[in-house]
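Tokens in:
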């Protein structure tokens, strides 16, 4: 066992112990302690990284990137606690993330166009994770965000082993160890402010690291694809439906409505599916679809498929999940079949484009495999769908 591996294991143990201790003690420290119970994650991560650095197993990026994303998280946490408008919080964290990528470009770690793309993607991913995590905390599913984060960490570990990159492996092990107590003992206060930005900081840090070290965007974003589609769908729906616009109008002025637009509530697709079925089933669908999306991206990586084609195949899986969750929430069999036929046509088009771009027949197996997974999953919902739309399903989509 080499020095790097020993240092990584030691740092992981330290991160786990510190995070577990904080997760057990903070909720007992009164109302304020419950509101910051998610601090177990950044504290465990910080101690783990300090141990990693002291053992000599840390790389420059494994210290710079978490430091950068934690600063962005602190801006979101303080802004949330102080009631700062959502626009200013996003602007502040976004400036830190994009500015950090500009600094990485100046250091020579990436090209200018890549730095801009990574920076913009990091800001979007940060906002999506914060939104989805807080929605889960408020809807009685506080463990789900941490479970998805651990799934993402496992995918990044597979990527790190395949590159290979010991620095990325070390950071991911420490991050996963710090997240685990938040899964076992999640914060119980629905107004808890720290866990969501901290999960976003960890996910963005290891995602950027993987991206910089030659992992494709489709690979590092695949575990987030399903959640990202859910959040985007929900935010668009708030603007496009009468009920959504009425909710924003109730906030008062347009400025307040813009703030309310980004406030997590009970209208994520996964939340609506959970209300129609059960929280356990909705979580199983979410984790299963995220796992399948990750497998599709890893298969595309092994076949050296262009990342755009891989991302489109991942999108087929995410779109299939969306159709089935909307179906469980109230779509009829006929409407669901229409969606599936449209998705099938899209998947076949992606397969044709993949063959056109790549030229290998085996490359077509990735989008076709994603489409096959969608149709296989349909067996789990088809018999449960009503033949006609439910009365309450007029606003399901």
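Residues out:
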């Amino acid at each position: 066992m080499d020095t790097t591996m020993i240092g990584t294991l030691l740092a992981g143990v330290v991160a786990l112990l510190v995070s577990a201790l904080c997760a057990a003690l903070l909720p007992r420290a009164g109302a304020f302690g419950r509101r910051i119970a998610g601090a177990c994650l950044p504290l465990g991560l910080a101690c783990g990284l300090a141990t990693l650095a002291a053992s000599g197993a840390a790389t420059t990026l494994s210290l710079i990137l978490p430091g950068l994303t934690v600063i962005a998280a602190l801006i979101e946490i303080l802004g949330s606690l102080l009631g700062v408008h959502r626009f200013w919080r996003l602007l502040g964290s976004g400036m830190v993330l994009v500015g950090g990528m500009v600094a990485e470009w100046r250091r020579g770690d990436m090209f200018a166009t890549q730095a801009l793309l990574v920076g913009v993607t990091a800001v979007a991913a940060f906002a999506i994770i914060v939104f989805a995590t807080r929605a889960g905390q408020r809807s009685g599913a506080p463990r789900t965000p941490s479970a998805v984060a651990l799934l993402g960490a496992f995918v990044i570990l597979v990527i790190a082993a395949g590159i290979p990159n010991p620095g990325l492996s070390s950071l991911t092990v420490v991050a996963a160890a710090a997240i685990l107590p938040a899964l076992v003992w999640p914060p119980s206060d629905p107004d808890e402010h720290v866990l969501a930005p901290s999960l976003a900081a960890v996910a963005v840090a290891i995602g950027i690291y993987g991206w910089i070290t030659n992992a494709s965007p489709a690979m590092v974003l695949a575990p987030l694809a399903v959640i990202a589609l859910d959040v985007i769908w929900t935010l668009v729906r708030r603007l496009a439906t009468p009920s959504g616009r009425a909710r924003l109008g109730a906030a008062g002025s347009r400025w307040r409505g813009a703030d309310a637009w980004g406030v997590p509530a009970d209208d994520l697709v996964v939340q609506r599916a959970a209300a129609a079925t059960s929280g356990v089933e909705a979580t199983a669908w979410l984790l299963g679809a995220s796992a399948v999306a990750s497998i599709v991206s890893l298969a595309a990586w092994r076949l050296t498929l262009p990342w755009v084609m891989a991302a489109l195949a991942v999108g087929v899986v995410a779109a299939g999940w969306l159709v089935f969750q909307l179906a469980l929430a109230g779509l009829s069999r006929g409407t669901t079949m229409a969606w599936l036929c449209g998705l099938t046509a899209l998947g076949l088009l992606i397969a044709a484009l993949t063959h056109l771009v790549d030229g290998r027949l085996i490359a077509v197996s990735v989008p076709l495999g994603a489409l096959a997974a969608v149709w296989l999953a349909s067996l789990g919902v088809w018999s449960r769908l009503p033949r006609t739309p439910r009365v309450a399903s007029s606003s399901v989509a």
